[in-house]
């Protein structure tokens, strides 16, 4: 009788990340921090840039905005490009360009040069977010470790957006305006040195030809739509934002049609057939909508209503940054005991409670109530970003994670632009409506004071003391009224998204506790 000799069982696969992967994560986190900081780091440098380079008003807007415009337009394309040429290779190339252009930006001799440099930084920055996120999903296979890694990644973005003005303010107190660009240089140098040693390479072996026409359509669509929304928020509805919106809608329709008919699309629209992917993406957009919408008003409230300096405003936002970090780091542990749907609902409820606190602000408060409200809102929203990001990227095959992470970041950019545009427009409309009846018509520069609170503050500096006090009082009261209304709208949106999460994602289990 023959006996069958069974081959030895294969040892169980160990998916847990080691020391190399954790070092790689911190390198990626620093890169993400700089990427996010560059969205806000110039906010405090505007006066010095205006004095040194003397840009026109339109040039100054482009100096501030073009980084975000180009970034939003290229995130999806760069996410897919990384799947084709290698995610680590694309990240290191972007880091080299980012560091080099940052140095050139610091010594820009005129506004045109600085605008061009900011556009190049946007191109380089667009390689960072999708590349780092997709690499994290490659490096961390264990669900628990991956959740912690994604939480750390989200923390870097949250902290970077608020650290930009704070660190920029510190540098600007001692150095010239260009010094803010040097914040990126050592981080990108570290990424170039350590990246090849601690980061793995990954590319999609079955990637087809890169759809350059589709990439161009996606860039035009995103830049046009973001431009339209930002212009509406700043200046109201006019010929330029309407034209930009029409261009974006037409090119967007052409992009969708092209992706549905190509065998190797830039964006596989079949991803949207996955309910978990679709719902998580929608929740992410609304969460960013709420975050950017309220930050827009709180930053102005600190400076223009309470009269804090830019550096004092940055310090007042530090608790918000800490809340973002705490919330993002707590998410991987909370998701082990709560299903994602209930954790999202709880976070949205907490954010809504903070938004309702904003409806209690007044013109003669100190900063404490606004700081507390911002802390609560960020603490509630921060876990949601990590959870939805993992649901979005984790619901697609590994070879599509670059495209999915690019789409996730693109959706976040859209959510932020929508928050600034829609809530900003509503708040501005309330401000102007209130002042139409409360601000005396015979005052000098009355129309300018009705445009924005910032212009009202400038107008007041040219008036006698009694008139200046009246203009400031009525303008600040109108602005705070706008905060109250938009906070109510954002709170209702947060509650609605919490309900949606429970309805659509309640069957998604909690993370494994192993």
Q: Care to describe what's here?
A:
This protein has helices at residues 19-37, 46-53, 57-85, 87-106, 111-125, 128-139, 143-172, 184-198, 212-235, 239-261, 275-305, 310-316, 318-334, 340-358, 368-394, 401-438, 446-451, 453-460, 465-505. By secondary structure, the chain is mainly α. It has 3 domains: 18-200, MFS general substrate transporter like domains (Growth Hormone, Chain: A), CATH 1.20.1250; 211-265; 271-514, Up-down Bundle (Growth Hormone, Chain: A), CATH 1.20.1250.
Tell me the number of helical segments per DSSP (H or I, 4 or more residues long): 19
CATH topology of the largest domain: Growth Hormone, Chain: A
- Number of structurally distinct domains: 3
Terminal CA distance reads 44 Å
Indicate the CATH class of the largest domain: Mainly Alpha
Question: What's the total count of β strands?
Answer: 0
The stretches of 5 or more residues where confidence is low (pLDDT under 50) are 1-12
From the alpha-carbon coordinates, what is the Rg to the nearest angstrom? 24 Å
Order of H and E elements: HHHHHHHHHHHHHHHHHHH
Portion of residues within helices: over 70%
Overall outline: globular
